[in-house]
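Objective 1.3, modelling of assemblies. Example input:
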Amino acid sequence: MALFGKTDAYWDWGREAKDFLRATAAACIFGIPLLYTMEMWWNGLFFDPARLLGILAATLAVNVLICLFLGFRREHTWPVAVTEAVTSIGIGVLLSSLILLLIGEIPTHAPLTAMAGKVVILASLMSLGVSATNAKFHGDTSREAKPTGAFSWLGDDRLQLREDLKDAGAGIPGAAVLAVSIAPTEEVLLIASRLEPIQLLLLFLSEIVVCYLILFASGFWCRPKYLPRDLFQSPFVETVLATTLSIIVAGTLMFALGPVDILHDGGTFLACTVVLGLPAVVGGAAARLVL
Amino acid sequence: MKKGSMKGPEWVTFLISLALLLLMVTYLVERCLRPPSPLVHVETTVGEAKRVGPTEAPEELFVVPLQVRNAGERALSRLSMRIEGDGVMPYEIEIEYLGALTSRTLYVYARGRGAGATIRAVPKFYRLD
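Predicted structure (tokens):
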């Protein structure tokens, strides 16, 4: 399709979608822990508008520097750095609004006044994640690790099992590291108690989507596949397994460290587990990328 | 990508992001320019009372929803309110924070049929941060 006299290569939406998904994944990794801090919600409500403007300006400056020196689009010019910094903040604003809506921190009937502060604070942090991560991974969409010859005497089945266990071994501590400091806090129960069942279901589904974004859609993850046609190696099944593992970690942490009262009520315990599941899923998926 | 050549979708993403950023900045600047006022109007609305427990109880117990709304454009913290009315032992409660133009629903226990109609919440103290 040629639009405005430009070629298909000019209107490459596929590549832009990939960049956007990568940015979403990075923003989640940076921003989710902050979401579960009650004081940050309050700061969003109480901060003076001038202070919020200052935060926005400082965020823009830091984003410009990141884009300038790391090269978001692999270019190191001031105009490009400014445009990319603005794009990072825009993505941050969009995602933070969505996530705050999802956990009920912005009621659907809330006025702009109640939303602006919270969105500015969360968007600032998320935008830094977008800039920094895109600077590192932008345009690198073919990061598939090839199977190596090491341990070839084990056979493909066992090699794949070894890789799967390595992934689980990275995912479990990753989920635990991010969720362990959140599990004992009041915020989990607070969010869980105000969400309707349909909102909890949406949150659970979004956890699966976030896991998929971080592991597959973003193109961050590369690992050898010894059985590429195996059902359990398909992105969907792997995403479901990774999410389930992280949710189990979240449930275990709620059982061990959460408020004692929730253990007497199965529904509340389940709701708290789903709420804690979001940081656990992000932590588990992020750890698979790193470890 | 060649140096200095942003593609169509990148321009679209940038322009949407710029619009979001300008919307935020415009809103915050407008709030900065608005003259501050220490007067914040707190409104309360009493909802329909629901009976708790068996109807044969000698003194029926009701739960009355009480909506507290911050009608001002500034967030309140430590909003202290006195709850009083027929069938309610007067007491004070504190709401940790109440955002601008937002509301919170409290549930008050009251004894006796029709008790809900006389319940009211009187603001005693608040802090502007």
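Chain A has two domains: 14-137, 152-290.
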